[in-house]
Write a structure and sequence with these properties.
- The protein is α/β, with parallel strands linked by helices.
- The chain has a single domain, classed as 3-Layer(aba) Sandwich (Rossmann fold).
- The protein is built from eight helices and ten strands.
- The strands form two sheets. It has a six-stranded mixed β-sheet, with helices on both faces.
- A hairpin with a 5-residue loop joins strand 1 and strand 2.
- The two termini are 18 Å apart.
Amino acid sequence: MEGLSLDGVWFTYDGRRWVLKRVSLVLEPCKAIYVTGPNGAGKTTLMRIAGLVARPTRGRVLVDGVDYWAERSLAVRRKVVYVPSTPLLVRGSLLDNVALGLELRGVEREAALETAARLLEEYGLGWMARVRRDEASSGQAQLAHVLRGVVTGAEYLVLDEPTAYLDAEKKKMLADILRERLSACTAVIAAGHDLEFAGLLKAEVYELREGVIVRRGASSSQL
């Protein structure tokens, strides 16, 4: 079965309090999901599990039908990219930081820079090659941080608070980029409080309530 699936996922950090309870969710190719909820509801934990960074205490995470934590396949792992909420710029220009996404996957530096430069030009962001890490605004850093995941060509993008530092112009720019990726059948799951951004993505919206995920507007039914 195609898709990134959380199947009956439970998670606890301390063995006493369940952060996630019976969470089942399917992200299909070419689709977008946005998960909202109050601070402390478990959104980041959910994104880390969907991004194959954290292993669920119970339940399974399936990528195109393969149980990742049972197989630990690198080929399966590379279908998914997790982008955490806090931008981390490590060196050089914003172009260098976008290209890093490919370098971390074994692409030689020059080839990675060429691919990243083409991506930025395609989206009208060629100026990012001239902005140094220490000169970048928080919004520019956030954009480079997310594009580092996009440039990999991963089939599933898992984004935690992707618009946290973006102004309205950059938010629209990121939404346009992600919609283009959706049209090419990349799937996107994001978490945060920005329902306007969810609307720009035409995402299906879910909410985490006390560790349980529900469809936005539902009273009690659980997926």
